[in-house]
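Input chain follows. Return structure tokens only.
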Amino acid sequence: MKRVILICPGRGSYTRECLATLAQTPSVAAADAFRASLGRPGPSELDRAPAYQSRLHVAGENASILTAACSLADRDQLGSVEVAAVVGNSMGWYTALTVAGALPLQAGLRLIETLGSYQANNVIGGQLVYPRMDEDWRPDPAPELDACLQTIPGLYKSILLGGQAVLGGTEAALAEAQRRLPAKKIGDRDAPFLLPLHSAFHTPLMAATAQRAQAELADLPYQAPQFPLVDGRGQIWRPRHTDLRGLADYTMGYQVVAPYDFTLSLRVALREYAPDHLVLLGPGGNLGGAIAQVLIAEGWGGIRSRADFQTLQKERPFLISMARPEQRALLTS
């Protein structure tokens, strides 16, 4: 049986190419029913929309539940695997709590829905992406980025994402950072670029959101996870040794207002559990680049460059993206 680490992506993962890909599984049915009880379109309805629309699919009140439903659907369809650990990126932490069993499904859906609903007509600041890697995905210092963080008021680290830095801040701070940062490329995209309809997640600007969530979700029934969870500080929450109060405080407090270090969480999971495969749950596969960049920085399995990673993926894929049918088939029955 293959030992795997499950990776839950964040809310920006559902893109135009993901439309009409959501499978019908028990978790998706539960998410549809939950949203119907609130008088809101369920993830299946959103996925079946005749066209992809930013105001519908990117808006936080829909994107969060849609992203989580895709991840849960992929989890439901996995064949016989041994789950060594679960990690998430940003909003994917909420999905990871559910996938790992630290929250029952209905409670996990409530958490995801509540935090997502806070974004409705209430985007706070924003997020900007800039690379800390070269074209071969090897680490490359970005001193201009550090200078911006040190000198622009209202600009903060938000997510550490492999070879990419996600900054959060006020609109004025992000505009100044865009003015100062030299133009670079991330794939086909010109950086720096803003993430549409994203608040300044994981920064002090979200303090009021954290306080509101702590009050409204104080009764969430956290429980010891079925599988180890690695959070955005690299801390492991273990099935037999989990401080439930600490888990709640981290989820509703620290990670809302402090940087989410996906790079560190994946590095810790790799070193601690040495899996046969990393499994990137849906939607899409755009987190795959950041995962590869972590592997390159680690020199995992002798991988030292983008070319090394691509060669490995062709010969014997270590990263299984559930969005790729040929890779998905390796782990689904």
